[in-house]
Amino acid sequence: MSEEEKTENKEKDGAVITENNGEKIYCLTIIGQIEGHYALGEGQKATKYEHLIPLLVSVEQSEDVDGLLLVLNTMGGDVEAGLALSEMVAGMKKPTVSLVLGGGHSIGVPLAVSTRKSFIVPSATMTIHPVRMNGLVVGVPQTYYYFERMQDRIIKFIVDHSSVTEDKFREMLTRMDQIATDTGSLINGTEAVECGLIDAVGSLSDALDALHEMIGEK
Fold first, then answer.
1. I need a labelling partner for 37 at 20 to 30 A (CA). Which of 21, 23, 51, 180 fits?
2. Is the separation of the CB atoms in 191 and 122 below 8 Å?
């Protein structure tokens, strides 16, 4: 594959490599809905997880990349796909930093906390709600058991990769006064930091400074 083709593929995936003082950072964006096993309709912004998994492998293996900046503005999406991507990022040895812009909703929450350090701008929001689905539900007890196990997996990941306690996170999941059609919480950047979900309120420059500091310590 030519360098021109590689550049074109990166642009399609919302990714770019920047260099400063000899340190190369791979910037990867997660936008719209995270598309999983089922394709979304035309006209919807989507991040395809089957594209990002090999991309993350290449970032981890590349000698030309020193760190990963994960920029999120997502409404959530496929739960298993989002959790798979989160585990991929959390398992990287290279320095990683996330920055939530606009929104880091639903399954975007584990993605936001999957990096070594997480930032959120003051105006961004994060929606925390239980796992849910649309359409016909068959075998209600079994479906409830599946949802409960999936929810436990998500909660464990978030608690293990942030400073929020399990009790606090479950409390936010079950609030009934903030989301009209569901239980859960809608929190802004400051609230996300205060509860321990995100490490710090900050801007792009703060996220980049933290990433360069990690690279320098490596």
1. 180
2. no
Tell me which of 129, 162, 185, 212 is the catalytic residue: 129
Sequence letter at residue 180: A
What letter represents residue 109's amino acid? V
The Cα 102–Cα 114 span in angstroms is: 18
Q: Cα(169)–Cα(109) distance, rounded to whole angstroms?
A: 11
DSSP 2-61: -HHHHHHHHHHTTEEEEEETTEEEEEEEEEEEEE-SSPPPTT--EEEHHHHHHHHHHHHH
| Nearest to 58, CA basis, from 13, 21, 115, 22 | 13
Span 197-208, average pLDDT: 97
Catalytic site includes residue 123: no
- To the query of whether residue 106 is one of the catalytic residues in this protein, the response is yes
- The catalytically annotated residue of 86, 98, 106, 114 is 106
Global confidence as pTM: 0.86
Mean pLDDT of 185-190: 95
